[in-house]
Amino acid sequence: MKRKIKVGSRDSALALWQTRWVVAQLEQQNPHLSFEIVTMKTKGDKMLDVALAKIGDKGLFTKELELAMLNKEIDFAVHSLKDMPTALPAGLTIGAVCKRDNSGDALISKDGRKLAELPQGARIGTSSLRRCAQLLNYRPDFRLEALRGNLNTRMKKMASQQLDAIILAAAGIYRMGWSDMIAEIIPFNVCLPAVGQGAIAVECREDDIEINQLLQGVEHKPTRVATDAERSLLRRLEGGCQVPIGAYGEVIEDRLSLQAIVATLDGQRLIRAQGEGALNQAEELGIEVADKLLSMGGKEILQQVRSGD
Ligand SMILES: NCc1[nH]cc(CCC(=O)O)c1CC(=O)O
C-alpha cells in the first residue's frame, strides 16, 4: 500500500501557501508518494491581540505541531524558520531549509511613499521590537504603533487605524501575491531582518530516515548555511522575540558573511558587527559575531532590555 505522508501546517493563509509550496515540490519529485495536509492552530494563532514580546513563549507558533510530530500524528511540519526557537525539542530536527529569496522587511505606505519620504512624526505599525528599535534609530520622530494579527488583519488595520505605513516581512507579501503594495524593501543599513526571516523550514523526527531523505529534495545548502550562522548568533545572545536583534547571513561563492545588530528598544543605542568565514564554519561565525556585539556594549544593552527599563 502507498504510504500517505501527513504534513502539519498552521492554518493561516501564509502558512498554507508555504506548506503547499513544499508539498508541490515533493510531489513532483516523488510521484509515487501521496501527501495530506493537516492544519492546526497554535497558541500564537489564538492570541492574536497580544504583542509577541509580551507573550514571550518559545515555540509559540510551533509547539502544537511539534507535539503532533512526536505523537506520530504527522510526519513533518512546515514553518517559517523565523518562528522556530533556536533549540528544538528532543527527537526533532530541521530536515530541510528551503531556498530564501527575500529576507528583507517591506514598507507598505499611504501613497506608496518610501521610508525617507514619510512625514515628520509618521505613525508606523509594527509589533516587532527589532523593527521599532531600528526605525527609531534611523528616524527618532517616527511613532511606532502596535500591530499584530495575520497578514490580512494587518493590512486592514493600516486603513482603520489611519497609519502612514506598516512593515511586514517581504517574503510573506510576495507569497500572498501582494508585491504591488510594497513601497520599498527597507535597506539593510536601516533595518536588518529577523534571524531566519524569509526562509521556509521543514521540521521532522530525527529518527525518521525516510522523511529526512525525502526532505533533501527541498533543501537549499546556501540558505541552510546562512541561517545556521544567524541561528547560532541568536543562540549565543539568548535572544528571542523579546530583544531587538537583527541578523543577515549570506553565502557569496565559497564565503559566508554575517552582519548583525543589537539595539535598545528606543533605538538610541544600536551596535553593529559583522564577520566572514568558511562555509563549514557557520556556527563558529555566529558565535564570533555575537561575541563582537557583546564586547562592543551589546551585553549592557541586553541586560537593560531584559530588566525592562
Ligand atoms: N512574525 C510572523 C511571521 N513569521 C514569518 C513571517 C513572514 C514570512 C517569513 O519571514 O518567512 C511573518 C510575518 C511578518 O513578519 O510580517
Summarize the structure.
Residues 228-294 form the Porphobilinogen deaminase C-terminal domain. The protein has 309 residues and is an alpha/beta fold.
List the helices and strands and how they pair.
Layout: E1 4-10, H1 13-29, E2 34-40, H2 43-46, H3 52-55, H4 63-70, E3 76-80, E4 92-97, E5 105-109, E6 123-125, H5 129-138, E7 143-145, H6 151-160, E8 165-169, H7 170-175, E9 184-185, E10 200-205, H8 209-215, H9 221-237, E11 245-252, E12 255-263, E13 270-278, H10 282-307
Parallel strand pairs: 1-2, 1-3, 6-7, 6-8
Antiparallel strand pairs: 3-10, 4-10, 5-8, 5-9, 11-12, 12-13
The structure holds ligand PBG.
The site of the ligand NCc1[nH]cc(CCC(=O)O)c1CC(=O)O has 9 residues, from β8 and α7.
Protein name: Porphobilinogen deaminase
Modified residues (S-(dipyrrolylmethanemethyl)cysteine): 241
Cofactor: dipyrromethane
Describe the protein:
The protein folds into three domains: 4-99 and 199-219, Periplasmic binding protein-like II (D-Maltodextrin-Binding Protein, domain 2), CATH 3.40.190; 105-185, Periplasmic binding protein-like II (D-Maltodextrin-Binding Protein, domain 2, 3-Layer(aba) Sandwich); 234-307, Double Stranded RNA Binding Domain, CATH 3.30.160. The protein has a five-stranded mixed β-sheet with strand order 2-1-3-10-4, with helices on both faces. A five-stranded mixed β-sheet has the order 7-6-8-5-9, sandwiched between helices. It has helices at residues 13-29, 43-46, 52-55, 63-70, 129-138, 151-160, 170-175, 209-215, 221-237, 282-307; strands spanning 4-10, 34-40, 76-80, 92-97, 105-109, 123-125, 143-145, 165-169, 184-185, 200-205, 245-252, 255-263, 270-278. Helix 9 runs parallel beside helix 10. Helices cover 35% and strands 24% of the residues. It is α/β, with parallel strands linked by helices and 309 residues long. Strand 12 (255-263) and strand 13 (270-278) form a beta hairpin. The site of the ligand NCc1[nH]cc(CCC(=O)O)c1CC(=O)O has 9 residues, from strand 8 and helix 7. Residues 228-294 form the Porphobilinogen deaminase C-terminal domain. InterPro entries: HemC, Porphobilin_deaminase_cofac_BS, Porphobilin_deaminase_N, Porphobilinogen_deaminase_C, Porphobilinogen_deaminase_C_sf.
